[in-house]
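Morning run. Coffee first, then this:
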Amino acid sequence: METLFQRFVLAGGIVMILLIPCSVAALALILHGLIDLRRGKVMPRRVDAVFRDLDGSASIEALQEKLNTCPDSPLTRVCRRLCPWVGRHGESWDLAVQQVTSEEVAGLYQKHGYLSLIYQVAPLLGLLGTILGMIRAFHTFGASPDRSVGDLGRGISEALVTTMWGLMIAVPSQFFLSLFRQKLYRYEEELIPGHVRQLFAPLQSALKAPQGRPPAKSAPPREQP
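And here it is:
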C-alpha cells in the first residue's frame, strides 16, 4: 500500500532534494521574522525607561552610557547615533532622525529579503520537477508495449507533486514577506521616528549638540517587491 510519504515526497523525484530544504528555510525565516519584528524586539521598553530616568543635569555622554546597557535593537542604535545631534531643531533634526532610522531599518529589509528569494525560486523548482516528471511519464508510456491510460495518469499525477510543493512554499512565503515589509515600512516611516522625537523632546532644550551637518544618508536601496 502506497504511503503519503511515497505519494507526496518520493514521487517528486530528484527535485525534492532542493524543494524540501527550501521549505525548511522558508519556515525558519518566517518564524524568525515573526519573532524578530515584534514591537518589543524592535522598540524595547528598556530604552523608554532610560529616558524617563534622566534628570535635568544629565549629559549626552551619560545618556550614551545608559543606552549601551539596553538590549541591542534598531531603536537603541538609532538613539545612540542621534545623541550628537541633540539640541538641533526643525528640518536639521527631522532630517537626521529620518536618515538614521532609514539606515537602521535597511538592515532589516536585507535580512528578511531572503524570503523573497525562496518565494521566487520555489515555483520554478516545482515547474522543473513537473517537466522532468512529464518527460519520464510520456517516455515510459511510449516505450511500454501495453500502453495504459491509467499508467499515464499516475505518471502525470506524480509529475505534479513538485508543482504542489513549489506553490505550498511560495504562497505562505509571499504572504509573510508582504506582512514583514508592511511592518518594516511602518517602523521606518511612523513608529521609530515618531517615538524617537518623543523620547528626545525633553532633552532638546536642555542639551546642546556640537555644530555640524546631519549625517549623510548611506542606506542601501530597498528591495522592491
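The two ends are 45 Å apart (CA to CA). Good start to the day.
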